[in-house]
């Protein structure tokens, strides 16, 4: 039961296209890097954040929930960036963005400029909650280690592509050097 749940948690949609998987990885890393500052900003002045944001939406224990939001972003963002426990991290980050959107709607109504950034973040975090981190992630490496049959042969080939590309590049350089010497 635990192993099955763990495998499902770590398993990602495995579209085996190299460029598709590369784009997922770039998006995941960029999101993780960009959202960290939100958590740092909250931690810099918890009482102010609690007063200006958490109390406004009517949540009880505003200081507590301010810390929850800050640490969700500070812990979830690096996890998302490296692709480790991606689905739970992305789900937590999705939740914080939903609360942010709720706050923006209460304060400014359905104003796109206020909702824009938190809406884009929420959509991206929902994407990773549903689809997982992709093949170029720590989760995929762990999944492959836990169950060698969990990933298809094509997915494993994509995961090994970097090594193959590097060796192909080295071979091409050796051939070019050899031709230049002749």
UniProtKB/TrEMBL annotation:
Keywords from the named record: Cell membrane, Membrane, Transmembrane, Transmembrane helix
Pfam families per UniProt: DoxX (PF07681)
Location relative to the cell: Cell membrane
Entry keyword Membrane: yes
Coiled coil: none
Domain of life: Bacteria
One GO CC annotation: plasma membrane
Transmembrane segments: 114-136
Keyword Membrane: yes
Bilayer topology: Multi-pass membrane protein
Family stated for the protein in its record: Belongs to the DoxX family.
Classification via PANTHER family: INNER MEMBRANE PROTEIN YPHA-RELATED (PTHR33452:SF1), OXIDOREDUCTASE CATD-RELATED (PTHR33452)
Designated name of the protein: DoxX family protein
